[in-house]
Amino acid sequence: VQYASWDDVNVLAHGLLQLGHGLKDHVDKTKGQMRDITAKLKSFDGTVAELSKLTRHLQEEGDALREKAKQLGHREKQVLNTSAEPQALAEDMRTERESTQDRVGRLERKVDILLRDAGSNEDRNRSTTDAHTLQWMMETQSRRIDDLVERVRQQQDKLDKQNVRLQALQAEVKQRRLKSVVTRKVEDFSVDGMLERASPSNELPSDCHELFLRGEKQSGVYTIKPHDAKPFNVFCEMTSEHGWTVIQKREDGSLDFNRLWSDYQNGFGSLRGEFWLGLEKMLSISKQRPHVLQIELSDWRGETQSVSYSFQLDGEESNYALHVQPTTPSNLESALTTGPDGLPFSTADRDQDLKEDANCALQLSGGWWFSNCGHSNLNGRYQSGPTLAQRHHRKQVVFWKTWHGRYYPLKTTAMKITPAIKS
Which residues form a coiled coil (predicted)? Predict the structure, then answer.
């Protein structure tokens, strides 16, 4: 019996070991590829489901459009039928008028003959009677003509109303058709198109800074959609480094800020002028991640100051309590002081300030994060010019106590937030 040498056995074992490692690597790689294929199939299934929903939606829109077209056709027939009635009536009136004119002409000729041939008193009396009879007949025919004209006018009014309704229905159908065409053109039915629309780059931004990161550099009004919130419009102020979401602005006193809780909760004013964005919208933006609040002020001498804080806002259950902490040294001393529990928002009808024996919002006007009524109020009564008014009115102006004191009315204020940049 012949046996292989020990070296041959080692070579063969080494080769088998390498082959085993190669097979194992191949199996692992195949498993990874299978997982990728499975994930892609799941994504494809989701895309197909979305496509099915979109198709059903378009079918429903088409059915509704066809039903609207049927209704429009029915109304068109009604309008045509309605318009036929005054046309027939007008035709009858023309025929009646022609017949009346012929009869009147004949009666006039008869009167002339009677007047010409009447020689005796008896003939004259008979002619006079005939003339009265003819006059009565003419008046009767005239009244009939007036009645016909009035009926035609009424029918014409009905026809005008039907035409207006028909034009409105035609415009509505045209708009629906245009909407359906635009929807079909915008929605791409390919799988790649569905995946592209599902990508985050095509979704609404969560705030102005996300819009800035996408490349938008122009300040203006934009639509954002914070997480777990409905879309709404904001004014974005774009700088070289940030996209700021403006939450408050005072500039000319054109808007009354002396309002109650519901207005401050929901917001008021024009985003292109003076406005308060609203506590609930501020909360939906700021709760997504840490934010920085920047307050910018100007006086009637043309000087400006600003101060920045780390910014956090609690929910309605905590009365939108404010938590701020100055972030960088500033020439403007802070006039917002909050404790560990924050500073609740307060209005005249929701007195939640820290002063127990007074209603700061009622005394100072507007709604604000009041502490003891004396540090700041950027939502107070706007005063045009730096002239000091009576003491009662001086307490109600827009002020920042650490800059010119509590009785100096500020010219402009702006509050804006942006996500905090991690160092």
Answer: none
Cα–Cα distance for residue pair 111/109, rounded to 1 Å: 5
| Residue 360: both structure tokens together | 């700061």
Count the neighbouring beta carbons within 10 Å of the beta carbon of residue 148: 17
pLDDT digits (tens, 9 = 90+) for 139-188: 777 777 777 777 777 777 777 677 667 776 777 766 666 655 545 544 44
- Alpha-carbon Rg for the chain, nearest whole angstrom, is 43
Where in the chain are the domains? 6-186, 205-419
Of 162, 377, 412, 172, residue with least CA distance to 303 = 412
Let me know: does 398 contact 383? Beta carbons within 8 Å: yes
Q: Using one digit for the tens of pLDDT, what is the confidence trace for 281-291?
A: 999 999 989 99
- d(CA 317, CA 335) in angstroms, rounded, equals 25
For the four alpha carbons of 262, 228, 326 and 236, in that order, the dihedral sign comes to: negative
Cite the DSSP H helix spans in 187-246: 191-197, 208-213
Read off the pTM: 0.54
Calculate the alpha carbon distances from 309 to 290, 336, 369, 395, 411 in Å: 11, 10, 14, 25, 22
DSSP, collapsed to helix, strand or coil, labels residue 402 as coil
CA angle (177 as vertex; 173, 181 as ends), nearest 5? 170
- Which residue type occupies 147? D
d(CA 271, CA 293): 18
* CA dist., res. 342 & res. 290, Å (int): 16
Q: Report residue 347 as tokens.
A: 């209005």
| CA atoms lying within 13 Å on the CB side of residue 256 | 4
Closest residue by Cα to residue 110 from 134, 92, 87: 134
Helix axes 121-186, 6-117, angle to 10 degrees: 170
Tell which CATH classification among 1.25.40.10, 3.40.50.10540, 3.90.215.10, 3.30.750.80 matches the domain 205-419. Answer: 3.90.215.10
* Residue whose pair of structure tokens reads 């005008």 in the numeric block: 160
- CA 396 vs. chain centroid, Å, equals 34
Tokens of 373: 């009524």
